Amino acid sequence: MNTKLALKAGAAALALMMAAGCSTIGQAEFNALSAKVDRAAADASSAKSAADAASAASSAASQKADAAQSTANQALNAANQSQACCDATNEKIDRMFKRSQAK
Prior knowledge:
Blueprint lengths: L1 H21 L4 H76 L1
């Protein structure tokens, strides 16, 4: 048990020393790291702006596609009504022709 405790204490001490050693960076390194973080934040902000613009364009395109589909549906409805009228007119002409032949 004492060996395990000693190993755990040694590992903890080693981790503490490594962490303490890593925390002593110079001002120049800190400034360079800070500049990288600032650039990354600016890049992320730019990417978010581009994504927002793309989303807005996509939404506008979707609305235009919906309007075009509505217009196409109206045109199809009008064409179907015209075809029905044409069919009815042809029926009338056929009946009139058959009546005139029957006389």
